[in-house]
Amino acid sequence: MTEQSGFEAEVAARVRVEVRDHIAHVTLTRGDKMNAVDPAMAEAIVAAGESLRGRDDIRAVVLAAEGRAFCAGLDVASFGKFAKEDPVARVMPRTHGEANLMQQVCMVWRDLEVPVIAALQGVAFGAGLQLAMGADIRVADPGTKLAIMEAKWGLVPDMGGMVVWPGLIRSDVLRLMTYTAEPIDAAQALSWGLVTLISDDPLAEAQRIAGVIAGKSPSATRGAKRLIALAESGASSAEVLLAESREQAALIGGAHQMEVIAANMAGRAPQFD
């Protein structure tokens, strides 16, 4: 077995992707290591997200993890390797559009055409929290701990969190969490806007939400995600208003919208297959 094929095997073993009933279930499978992110895990997470791009059969994604933690952050064992490499050569090249590999761990989910719901348990620290930030919606177990952990290692967050956090939490909260690296509990995260919901069974709740979304018009849901992304990007009011009209014009009278109307009139669930 060559070194490259061995690395590919590691990547394949890190993340599982299953599609059922128009929902993609993406599961981190390195539970024995608390799903810590090493190079193979980063490649696997990005590959999983990119494998779902452009698939018309998918209407929502559930992002979850095996074991007692969603993701404990960067694999500490990787730090030794990183220290021996040229940091500029490692982090500066834009290997995935506007992002490098580690940033794409978060951004691939933000850029996916359909909603992503993350189910969190145990801890979501550092890289794990930034991965969770890639989701549209985050459901956490009451015992979950979350932290912007990079200051503990003398670093700054550099995996996409700084793209997402300013739109979710107050500046003082972001500064407090970034400067101190202190973990917060799920209740505090909910209060501050990092978590959407708290549930005793976050995976089941994430799957329930995904099922509700999957029952809505696929074209309307995708249009809504595009609109929200544009509105959050700092676009002008004129640009957002025009985009609203453009998306609506494309939906009115279309096959999906007509099926929704017919289903509502008949008191049945719509069928988009």
Summarize the structure.
This protein has about 270 residues and is of the alpha/beta class. The chain has 13 helices and nine strands.
Keyphrases for this structure?
single chain, 273 residues, alpha/beta, 2-enoyl-CoA Hydratase, Chain A, domain 1, Lyase 2-enoyl-coa Hydratase, Chain  A, domain 2, 2 domains, six-stranded mixed β-sheet, three-stranded mixed β-sheet, 9 strands
Give the helices and strands, then pairings.
Layout lengths: L2 H12 E6 L2 E6 L10 H13 L8 E6 L11 H7 L3 H5 L9 H10 L5 E5 L2 E3 L1 H7 L3 E4 L4 E3 L13 H4 L6 H10 L3 E2 H7 L4 E2 L3 H13 L3 H15 L4 H15 L3 H12 L7
Helix pairs in contact: 1-2, 2-5, 5-6, 11-12
Description:
Pathway: Lipid metabolism; fatty acid beta-oxidation. The chain has 2 domains: 3-214, 2-enoyl-CoA Hydratase, Chain A, domain 1 (Alpha-Beta Complex), CATH 3.90.226.10; 218-266, Lyase 2-enoyl-coa Hydratase, Chain  A, domain 2, CATH 1.10.12. Helix 1 packs across helix 2. It is of the alpha/beta class. The protein has a 6-stranded mixed β-sheet with strand order 1-2-3-4-6-9, with helices on both faces. Helix content is 48%, strand content 14%. The model has no long low-confidence stretch (mean pLDDT 94). It is built from 13 helices and 9 strands. The chain has helices spanning 3-14, 39-51, 77-83, 87-91, 101-110, 127-133, 161-164, 171-180, 186-192, 202-214, 218-232, 237-251, 255-266, and strands at residues 15-20, 23-28, 60-65, 116-120, 123-125, 137-140, 145-147, 184-185, 197-198.
